[in-house]
Amino acid sequence: MKTREIIQQLKSCESMCEAGRAATSYFLRVCRSDSSHILRIGSFRLRDIRACHDDLECTYLIRMFAVFEMALREFWTGAMGRRSRPAVRQLMDAVALRCSVPVDHLVRAHGVRESRNVLVHGGEGRSVALAEARSYLCQFLSSLPREW
């Protein structure tokens, strides 16, 4: 696996979110001017389109973190030769230690993990914007070997 490919996948999540925002924004305008467009496509309502538009960043942050976690799990088994399946927090800490990830990069990546956990499991916590999340996760990954 190549670290730059994982970083590209994270950037792609951000690009897809931007495309989704543009598409839903346009579709909202079209449907506001003529609601018959909605009936031709599905059984949803204008408020569902708005909710979709508003939730895109959260959805793609979850997806982005899933790509990051998958990469760390592959590194864990492939490069580190481990067979266990640690919790993500411990996985991040172990990989950070092995690859000398700067502490501030690890702390920021944990912030993304915590934000993702709030989205998935509920609760309270600081939210992280998608562009910020991509930056933090890429910073963490930049300390991993180029290939493994």
Report what the structure shows.
The model has no long low-confidence stretch (mean pLDDT 95). The longest helix has 33 residues, at 46-78. Helix content is 76%, strand content 0%. Helix 4 (88-99) packs antiparallel against helix 5. It has helices at residues 3-33, 36-41, 46-78, 88-99, 103-121, 130-141. The chain has 148 residues and is mainly alpha-helical.
Our Rg estimate from Cα atoms comes to 18 Å
Mean residue pLDDT? 95
| Approximate shape | elongated
Q: What's the helical proportion of residues?
A: over 70%
Main sheet makeup? none
Which structural category fits the helices and strands? mainly alpha
Q: Helical region count?
A: 6
Bin the strand percentage. Answer: under 5%
* Element-by-element helix/strand order: HHHHHH
Q: Give the termini distance in whole angstroms.
A: 5 Å
Low-confidence stretches: none
E-strand count = 0
Write the layout of secondary structure elements.
Layout: H1 3-33, H2 36-41, H3 46-78, H4 88-99, H5 103-121, H6 130-141
Helix pairs in contact: 1-3, 1-6, 3-4, 3-5, 3-6, 4-5, 5-6
Please summarize what this structure is.
The chain has 148 residues and is mostly helical.
